[in-house]
């Protein structure tokens, strides 16, 4: 059964109370992407996440003023995501958000904002990219893999990783931006993302390509 493209609205059927977002972190908080210049070294014994860079300047792809809502915010309609056979087997709900390859990362960022609006804690969310790394991940990796992966282990914020990274551990919600990569890379990344998603998998990309790689057709 093919995945049905939906408008960028996040709707979950997850029992129990919502997790409370980490203090000070909401959808209006600037995304954790790198700022210009070198990052100061954290004090000895301080967690790596304490030196997280700020929001970049104009060089970053524009998503409007800081704190402004995305162009397409959810309306009263809240569709239920349609899951394919692979998603049903993993137990995670699946939502497919249509986006061109060069817009998949922006769509993933909007999905994260909507998840935070819905009450999801930042530490619940893992964002994977099949092509170019998210700017935050690229920036943090420039300071070494040990500090980068320590932030995943700290689990106090949204974590961004390459979809092929075996060290990326599962979280309740996984968002995949199909923003590049060859067919083989994407074909491996999607099933792997399903196994990492505990409750919800959001895939942002070209619906025809994604369904074809998952082996499902209309």
At a glance:
The chain is α/β, with parallel strands linked by helices and 218 residues long.
Structure description:
- By secondary structure, the protein is an alpha/beta fold.
- The chain is 27% helix and 14% strand.
- The chain has helices at 85-90, 104-117, 135-141, 145-154, 183-196, 207-213, and strands spanning 93-98, 125-129, 159-162, 171-177, 197-205.
- The protein has a five-stranded parallel sheet with strand order 1-5-4-2-3, with helices on both faces.
- The N and C termini lie close together (7 Å).
- The model is unreliable at 13-24 and 35-89 (pLDDT under 50).
Please write out the topology.
Layout: H1 85-90, E1 93-98, H2 104-117, E2 125-129, H3 135-141, H4 145-154, E3 159-162, E4 171-177, H5 183-196, E5 197-205, H6 207-213
Parallel strand pairs: 1-5, 2-3, 2-4, 4-5
Compute the gyration radius: what is it? Answer: 17 Å
Strand order of the largest sheet: 1-5-4-2-3
* Beta strand count: 5
Q: Helix content range of the residues, please? A: 25-40%
Describe this protein with a few key phrases.
single chain, 218 residues, alpha/beta, five-stranded parallel sheet, 6 helices, 27% helix
